């Protein structure tokens, strides 16, 4: 059954090409190859999931390089959109001056209904798959919360939107993560 499930990369590609059939998608893996793209060459850069702990005061060199890349792209490439998903949401927040913390309510996993922002500036309700231990405790300046607990953020000036959850995930992708999990997310879950 697991082999029939869609991988997260395939899910992202499928989502993008369903709305932009001619899109050219180029994955980059800075943790492995220490290479980041020339931001101005792209219409959109998507920072996706990962497990590196962004609450640490001193991140690994590849993480610091990624955070600097986010800052520079936001400031110098106004035609390049930045999307942050999961770890990318936290990385964008930290890069731009926000604060990351461990979830005070414990790990979040499964489908979460995200209502409008606490200050009522957003009235959008939506649900996303969530798999995370950390969250954005304080958004960076000029980021507007689109959902409570800073689970979705939009920058007032730069072309940036971020989500703590996974808008690209289908049920199949969520199940693939749970099936492949080493216990980080499913350690205390029942078979159901």
UniProtKB/TrEMBL annotation:
It comes from Fusarium redolens. GO terms for cellular component: cytosol. It comes from the Eukaryota. This is Glutamine amidotransferase domain-containing protein. PANTHER family: GLUTAMINE AMIDOTRANSFERASE YLR126C-RELATED (PTHR42695). InterPro entries: ChyE-like, Class_I_gatase-like, GATASE. Residues 61-172 form the Glutamine amidotransferase domain. It holds the Pfam family GATase.
């Amino acid at each position: 059954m697991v082999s029939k499930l869609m991988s997260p990369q395939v899910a992202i590609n499928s989502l993008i090409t369903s709305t932009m059939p001619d899109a050219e998608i180029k994955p980059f893996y800075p943790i492995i190859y220490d290479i980041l793209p020339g931001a101005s060459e792209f219409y959109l850069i998507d920072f996706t999931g990962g497990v590196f702990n962004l609450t640490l005061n001193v991140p690994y060199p590849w993480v610091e390089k990624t955070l600097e890349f986010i800052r520079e792209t936001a400031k110098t490439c106004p035609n390049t959109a930045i999307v942050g998903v999961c770890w990318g949401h936290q990385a964008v927040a930290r890069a731009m001056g926000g604060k990351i913390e461990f979830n005070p309510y414990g790990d979040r996993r499964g489908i979460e209904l995200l209502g409008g922002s606490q200050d009522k500036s957003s009235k959008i309700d939506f649900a996303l798959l969530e798999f995370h231990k950390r969250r954005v405790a304080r958004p960076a300046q000029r980021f507007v919360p689109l959902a409570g607990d800073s689970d979705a953020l939009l920058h007032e000036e730069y072309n940036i939107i971020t989500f703590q959850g996974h808008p690209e995930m289908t049920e199949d992708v969520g199940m693939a993560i749970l099936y492949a999990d080493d216990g980080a997310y499913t350690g205390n879950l029942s078979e159901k």
